[in-house]
Design brief:
single chain; about 220 residues; mainly alpha; about 65% helix; about 0% strand; elongated
């Protein structure tokens, strides 16, 4: 049951705007205009609409939330910090911080990552942010737990692929493990992902082996 918690919470946030709007008679059209501005990437209009909403309006945080979501794509950490300092409770800051730590991990800004990671509750983390958390711990000398969860026929997010690569480079995974992962990806018809794994880890996976799903015989 616990595994369903985060998807349900995120779905609740996604539905919150549409569910709440009919109950208010005031700035509903304005908020819908803000949503349209977000979708059109019109950030100036989105900011202007947010500034006009009264402080008493229950959904006032949405324009700023959407602006901050766009700021993540620009690596605008100042906007993200402003939002998180103002909105500190609920699903909005959880979602923003979860996405932010992934951006920080991608940029290898581990100082900022460590600071924000400890503020992100476990139920607010998704698979990729958890992988970046394990990647940080691996860099600190801690062996990551439960890497066998990637022994399936599904591709993994970028942060998890980075975790796998570094775990192998630091001896936490064997080449046998990589072959198992590669064969499972091939069995699931994820040829591109299998080849990427081979490229990142210098695994000798050529076209013949891809087609035959065979592990090569080691030279004596």
């Amino acid at each position: 049951m616990k595994a369903l918690t985060t998807p349900i919470r995120l779905a609740g946030l996604t539905l919150a705007l549409g569910a709440a709007l009919p109950a208010f008679a005031g700035p509903d059209d304005t908020l819908l205009s803000a949503r349209d501005a977000f979708r059109a990437n019109d950030l100036a209009k989105l900011a202007a609409i947010g500034d006009k909403l009264p402080d008493t309006y229950p959904l006032k945080d949405y324009p700023d939330y959407w602006l901050t979501w766009k700021a993540l794509d620009r690596n605008d950490d100042a906007q993200v910090r402003r939002f998180l300092s103002r909105v500190q409770e609920g699903l909005m800051p959880e979602r923003i911080r979860n996405e932010w730590v992934k951006k920080l991990g991608q940029r290898e800004d581990w100082t900022a990552f460590a600071e924000e990671w400890k503020k992100l509750p476990a139920e607010g983390r998704d698979e990729e942010s958890n992988c970046y958390g394990q990647l940080m711990q691996l860099r600190q000398g801690q062996k990551p737990d439960n890497l066998d969860r990637f022994l399936d026929s599904k591709p993994a997010p970028d942060g998890c692929n980075r975790l796998i690569d570094m775990a192998y480079a630091r001896g936490a995974l064997s080449q046998d493990w990589l072959w198992r992962r590669a064969r499972l990806l091939l069995a699931g018809n994820y040829l591109t992902q299998a080849r990427q794994l081979a490229s990142d880890t210098q695994l000798p996976l050529d076209n013949r082996r891809c087609n035959g799903l065979k592990r090569p015989t080691r030279a004596s």
